[in-house]
Amino acid sequence: MMTLPETTLARPAYRATHCLLCRSNRLELVLPLARSAVGNEYLHAPRPQPKFARSLWLCRECGNVQIEDVVHPDLLFRSYTYATGHSLGLVEHFRGYAREVAEDAGTSPGALVVDVGSNDGSLLRAFQESGYRVVGVDPAVEIAGRASDAGVPTLPEYFTPELADEIREEYGPASVVTANNVFAHSDRLPEMAEGVRRLLAPDGVFVFEVSYLLDIVQKMLWDTVYHEHLFYHSVRSLRGLFGRTGLELIGVRRIASKGGSLRGTVQRAGGPRPADHEVARLAGWEEVLSLHHPETFARLGRRIQSAKEDFVGLIDRLRAQGKRVAGYGASPTVTSLVSEFELAGRVDFLVDDNAVKQHTYSPGDHIPVYPSAALYEREADVAAILAWNYAGPIAARHARFTERGGRFVIPLPSLRVP
Ligand SMILES: [Zn+2]
Questions:
Q1: N or C end of the chain: smaller count of CB under 10 Å?
Q2: Separation of 49 CA from ligand 1 center, angstroms?
Q3: Is the dihedral of CA 5, 44, 77, 88 positive or negative?
Q4: What does the alpha-carbon distance between residue 107 and residue 35 come to, in Å, rounded to a whole number?
Q5: Confidence class of residue 67 from pLDDT cuts 50, 70 and 90?
Q6: What is the tens place of the pLDDT at every residue in 311-332?
Q7: How far, in Å, is the centroid of ligand 1 from the Cα of 244?
Q8: Reduced DSSP (H G I as helix, E B as strand, rest coil) percent helix, strand, coil of the chain, to 5
Q9: What is the CA(224)–ligand 1 centre distance, in A?
Q10: Helix residue spans in 78-188 (DSSP H)
Q11: Phi and psi (nearest 5°) for 40?
Q12: Which contacts qualify for 297-306: CB closer than 8 Å, 24 or more apart?
C-alpha cells in the first residue's frame, strides 16, 4: 500500500534507451504491453495516477529482457509495508532455505550472512537460530527499523558497492550473501553485483532467486511484468552480468516460487567451486528453445491477444445479458491484467481477501475493491478470477457462490469456465 503524496518526484520515471546490464544500445521492442499505473498503488481515495510504459525490450547483445519505463524506486519501495514473516508457512520455508544454503555453501556457524532486501528479517532469523552472524539491508525504513528492534541488525539503505565496503569493514567478509526477488528491482544491478563481489569472502557464495524468463514465456506469466520488476532474467543474461563483474554463476536450479523462478549460486571468479553442469545445460536449453529470439515474444504476444479476445468477448456477452461481473484479486498482477485486457468498465468491482486491499481503488482505473463477501452482498453473477494462479483455492473457498448460481471465469493461461 502506498501512502506517498501525489508525485513529489521531479522525474518519476525514465525510459531506458540502452541495456541496463551491458550498456549496449542494441535494444529491440519485442513485446508491446499496455501502459499501467504502478501496480501496487491501490488508493484509499481516487486521484489521478500516471501510467508508465510496460513493454518488454530485448538486448540483442547480452540477451537481457527489461521493461521500458524505469520508475523511480522511491515511488515503488520507499513506503513498502509488505512483511514476509506474517505467514507461518513462509517461516518454515525460510528455515528450510537457510539450511539448504548453509549446506550448499559448506559454511559453519559463526560465519557472516548478509541478506539484501531482507524485509522483516525472516530469512536472517533462520540463520541466526543456527548460530550465524547476520546483517540485513533493506531500504524500506519502517520495516528495517522493526527488524533491528527485533534483533536482526538491518541497514535501511539501498545496497551499493560503498555500503558493501562499509559492511565488510565493520563485520568482515561474508560467507553467504542472499537476495530473494530483489535482484530484478534496481536499475543499478551491475553495481549491486559489484557490491556482492566486494563483500564476499574468497570462498563465499551469493545465492539469489529471480523470476525465470523461460517460465514467464511458457506459462503465460506476462502479468508479472510490472514496474517493480525491471528485468526478466535467463541463465544467459545472468552469466553475462556476473562474468563482467568478476563473478561466476556456478549453479542454477528451477524452483516453483512465483509460478517459476531460478535459484542461482555465484562465487568470485576463480573461486574454489567447480561450476555445476546444470548451468551449461539450461543455457543450452534456452538456446534450443530460441528464448532470446524476437519471434518467441511475438508468439507470446499472439497468445496474449487471443486470450484477451476470448475473455473480453465472453464478458461482453454476459454484460449484454445484464449479468453483474466481479473480478477476484487486487494485486500488481491484477493491475497488469486489467490494463492489458481493458477491464475498466467491464468489471463492476474487485474483491480481495487481503484486508490491506479492501475498501481501496485499483491503480489507474479506480475500480473499487471490497472483501470477498461482496460477491454475495452485491449479488455478482460472474466472478472472473483475475488472480488466476490461485483459481483452485479461490473456487474451493467459494463453493457457495456457484451453489447460488454464480459462475467463475478464469482468463489465463487460456479461458476456462469451470
Ligand atoms: Zn545487454
A1: C
A2: 31
A3: positive
A4: 46
A5: very high
A6: 999 999 999 999 999 999 999 9
A7: 11
A8: 40, 25, 40
A9: 21
A10: 88-105, 122-129, 141-149, 161-171
A11: -105, 10
A12: 297/30, 297/31, 297/56, 297/58, 297/217, 298/30, 300/31, 300/217, 300/220, 300/222, 301/31, 301/32, 303/220, 304/220, 304/222, 304/340, 306/414
DSSP-based three-state secondary structure for 189: helix
Q: What is the pLDDT of residue 88?
A: 56
The Cα-based distances of 22 to 19, 184, 244 in angstroms read: 6, 15, 8
Instruction: Classify the C-alpha dihedral 128-248-200-271 as positive or negative.
Output: positive
CA distance 377 to 57: 44
Cell numbers standing for residue 48: 489521478
Q: Name 149's bridge partners.
A: none
Query: For residue 25, how far is its CA from the centre of ligand 1 (angstroms)?
Result: 8
Cell of 255: 524452483
CB 98 within 8 A of CB 77: no
Report how far residue 335's alpha carbon sits from residue 215's, in angstroms, rounded to the nearest whole number.
20
Residue 4 confidence (pLDDT) above 50: no
CA atoms within 13 A on the CB side of 231: 28
Name every residue whose Cβ is closer than 8 Å to that of residue 147 and which is 6 or more positions away in sequence: 118, 119, 120, 121, 124, 136, 138, 154
Residues 98-112, mean pLDDT to the nearest whole number: 90
At 220 the three-state DSSP class reads coil
Per-chain mean pLDDT for the chain:
92
Q: What is the C-alpha to C-alpha distance for residues 275 and 248, in angstroms, rounded to an integer?
A: 8
Cα 311 from Cα 309, distance rounded (Å): 6
Query: How many whole angstroms from 18 Cα to the centroid of ligand 1?
Result: 8
